[in-house]
Amino acid sequence: MRLNRFLAAAGLGSRRSCEELIRSGQVAINGHVCTNLATEVGDEDFVKVGNHRVLPQRKLFVLLNKPRGYLCTASDTHERRTIFDLMPKNWLRLFHVGRLDKESEGLLILTNDGELSLRLTHPRYKIEKEYEVLLDRAFDFTEDRAKLLRGMKIEGGWAKAEAVHKLAPAALRVVLRQGLKRQIRLMFYELGYEVKRLVRTRIGSLRIENLRPGDWRFLDAREVELLKNENASREKR
Questions:
Q1: What is the CB neighbour count within 10 angstroms for residue 36?
Q2: Active-site hit among 43, 76, 85, 101
Q3: Domains annotated on the chain, with CATH
Q4: Is 101 assigned a catalytic role?
Q5: What is the pLDDT of residues 34-82, one digit of tens each?
C-alpha cells in the first residue's frame, strides 16, 4: 500500500494532507525519514509520524441501505442528516464508495479499504449497479429504451445504460456500469421524464435482499472476496 494511503487509512487525514506530512519530512519508515510519495509499506514496516507510531486500522466493510433524505457526506454545514448518523458513533473513519443523492435510496458500501474503494468506483472496472426507477408517466419502451442503451450527452459526460427492463408501465429496472453524478435522473430528464423514486438494489454481486432502509450489516469475507474477484476478472478483459 502506498504510504499516503496507509497514513490516510490510519486516520491521519485525507491523502493530500498525508502527502504534506511526507513531503515535510515528518514520516519515518523503519527508522529512516521518507519523503518519497511513491513508497510502498506493508504490515511488517514500522511507520512513525513525529514521535508516534502509526498502526494500520482494521479493515471494515459495511453495506448500508440508505433511506431517502440522507446526504452522502461526513458532515453538513446546514446540519442536515447524513448517512453517518445511521452508523455507530466513534467508529473507525469510513468512506462511502460512490454516492447516492439526497432523494435516492438503496445500497451503499462504506469501508476504510482504499484499494477496494478505488476498484469499485474507477471507470476501468465497470462494476454493475442496478436500480429500480419510478417515473412520472408511462415509459415508451420501444423508442426510449433504445436511446438509453445507445447513450446520450448529459452534464458530466457521455452516459448510457447497460440494460433496461420493464417492471410496470412507469417502473423500470436499469443497470449501469458508470457512475456519473445524478446519471439516471439526468438521462431520463433528457428523454422528458421525471424520476419520482430511485432505489439502488444491487452493487456487483451484492443485493439489497432483506436489508431495511436505515439498516446496515458487515460484509462477510466471502462477499468481500467476490467483489475483489469480480474486479480482477474485469481488469483482465
A1: 11
A2: 101
A3: 3-54 (3.10.290.10), 61-123+206-235 (3.30.70.580), 128-203 (3.30.70.1560)
A4: yes
A5: 999 989 998 789 999 998 898 877 788 999 999 999 999 887 788 899 9
